[in-house]
Amino acid sequence: MFLPLLTALSVLGSSYAQISLVNVTIDKTSFVGVYNSTLGVDTFRGISYGTAERFKRTTAPLYNGNVTVVNATAPGVACPQVTVSSSTLTTTNYGEYGFGEDCTLLDIYRPHNTTRTSKLPVMVWIYGGGLTQGASFSYPGSGIVAVSSKMELPVITVIINYRLALWGFLGGQEAEDNGALNLGLYDQRDAMTWVQNYISYFGGDKDKVTLFGQSSGSMSIAYHFLTEDTNLFRAAILESGVSTSVPVLNASVNQPVYDALVNLAGCNNSSDTFSCLQTADESVLADAANSIASAPNSYSARPWAAAIDGEIIPDSPAVLTAQGKIANKPFIVGDVQDEGTVFVQPQALNTTDDYITWLGLDYVGRNAPFLSNETTLATLERLYPDVEALGSPYGTGNVSFFGEQFKRGASTYGDIHFHAPRRNWLEVAASKGMTSWCYEFAQTLPSVPEWTGVFHASDVFFVFLELPSTSPDFALAEQTVAYWLSFATHLTPNLAAALVGAPLWSQYGSLKTSLYMSSNETKLVVDNFRKEQIDFIRSVADQFLVHISLVQSIKGEFAGRSLSSLIRVHYTLNQRRLKHQIRWPNLLTDFTSSISFLVHIISAPFALVVEIFAINRTVSI
């Protein structure tokens, strides 16, 4: 329907696009952007939503009446991040724009001729990348805005930067003591606050803000559903990730990462290691971040992670979700079909022993600690049999692609970290009477290796119309955008039916209705695939998450105690497990199994010292 427009998208940056300047003024501060007449889109890029000093929260900009001109014609820098392949942060990683710590920036895309009285709905994109990588300029919002105008559902799109890796998600006691936890999440919230305060000057309606994001961006959005300060948006679209997709623990879990960073940065002899890191050269921190990221299992499964801080993440997301403490806002949530394929090392899983070891000890076991016991592993081995035709990428028959257990591992991983948490999130929301829609994205990208399937993040190419305009899959991209635009403007995706002939999309509700999306067919289905497998994962995940919440709830009772006194924690734990009907090992009489148990319910072996015994950081084993 919109192929002429989509063809125009392909020449956005070419000499054929007609470019001129446009400006918006906020109290004598003039933001000069670019108008692309081919697309009919105004773009303002690299706008600061706050000044970010290292390991501190941003300071909001002041538009105090002084005459100022802000050049918003080109992207700003990306935030410093993990590059792994390069020992330092270089501009070659992100083209000419480069990196910089003053990176709390956002880009705005709006239909041309938008005025302050237009009051258009606003879509705010939060990128993924494992909280370690990403940049706003990697997600051009012009395509969405151009299509929104053609569909007569005009929106403004805002793409935000936020701090990453050690700059945005530093862990450890020192970070907690200095208020430096979850700075990347606070950046996101500060960007949303900026939108509330100033998007009206660009023609947006602050009361019609929809968040959308993918992977860790989607998980971040889910975290924002758990805070008390949820008046910054009215709805959300979560693509591949909810708040329980990965464990969120206390800051002390990543104390070894902080200590390693101190050593690598040469701050180990400082009396104030936190201040030393604050003043360390940026290249030194970059090298340290890459050293840690290149060997994550030496320190932590996820060295840079969100943590419970009592504010933006007030408690364990799993506990809050189980208690139904999710903001009552409409949302769309879904996954791609083959979430796990790009997370499994292709050649690593050749035998059943490889599969079990990987589940229990390697990446999955460290990120999903509830897997690390023999009964759970044996059940997973049964539920995910050694049958290649049942593995992921699904629908590829008996082809193994790599190691014989690759498809088995990919299927297990995708269910543990994406499909099971998403289904749980939806069912909790449905039990609260919340308005929600679910989807399964099942379309492969053209010209990608078959082993990837419908891989994690492949749907982003459809959402941002980053496909060749001649592709037969463009109709699905158009359909996806129509659903998203309809939801952002009217809190229902179903205007897409009239716009592009898309099927009507029923809410999830008690019937667990989901939209299966592919180029061949988009249809309503019941969200019950691999029900036995996902039900089991949810059941053991729930058990683990109660364990971890109990352990963390009595942390204060352990501080300063000797190892022998800590062994006697069995009384407290057993009193509490009676209340919750959890089977705990006898911590006094079965010391070996108790140690093993405690190790397993934390995210990695080092966490035994960090999270249980070394609460005062003086005890060792």
TrEMBL record:
Signal peptide from the UniProt entry: 1-17
Keywords for this protein: Hydrolase, Signal
Coiled-coil ranges (or none): none
Domain Carboxylesterase type B: 36-536
One GO MF term: hydrolase activity
Cited InterPro entries: AB_hydrolase_fold (IPR029058), CarbesteraseB (IPR002018), Carboxylesterase_B_AS (IPR019826), Type-B_Carboxylest/Lipase (IPR050309)
EC number(s) per entry: 3.1.1.-
Top-rank taxon, per record: Eukaryota
Family stated for the protein in its record: Belongs to the type-B carboxylesterase/lipase family.
Protein name, per record: Carboxylic ester hydrolase
Organism lineage: Eukaryota, Fungi, Dikarya, Basidiomycota, Agaricomycotina
